[in-house]
Specification:
The chain has one helix spanning 100-122, and strands at 24-25, 29-33, 40-47, 51-56, 65-72, 75-87, 90-95. With 124 residues, the protein is α+β, with helices and mostly antiparallel strands. Strand 2 and strand 3 form a beta hairpin. Residues 1-17 have low confidence and may be disordered.
């Protein structure tokens, strides 16, 4: 009988977060409008230039394009997104369109990044 070596965490390469854009905490009410179902409500957890995550009070189908509406400090966002992942009640959405909503999201992420930097600098 041959023994199989037991791997340790030192044997495995470090996991790297391969996201394209930084995430920023954002707490706002969100409405998800699936194609053939009732609106699902919840609240956002974080946002990036390419997507948003949210805790929802209902289910939405994975890999479906849905319409999202939520508020950011600079205004109201309405954008189409692909439902990319689900972990219990937490969903990840990838934005699939450009235009004014994307510009508003980019601006929001820049502002949140600056606020985070200012907060970090004030703690040193």
């Amino acid at each position: 009988m041959q023994s199989i070596p037991h791997s340790t965490s030192a044997d495995r390469p470090a996991l790297v977060d391969a996201r394209r854009h930084a995430r920023f905490k954002l707490e706002a009410n969100i409405c998800v409008y699936p194609r053939n179902a009732e609106v699902v409500r919840g609240h956002t957890v974080d946002i990036s230039e390419s997507g948003v995550s949210a805790m929802l009070r209902g289910e939405v189908p994975l890999n479906e394009v849905v319409r999202l509406t939520f508020s950011v400090p600079a205004g109201e966002v309405e954008i189409h997104s692909l439902v990319r992942q689900r972990n219990a009640f937490r969903y990840g959405f990838q934005f699939v369109e450009g235009g004014p909503a994307s510009a508003l999201i980019r601006r929001t992420c820049r502002e949140l990044s600056l606020n985070e930097s200012l907060r970090d600098n004030s703690n040193t």
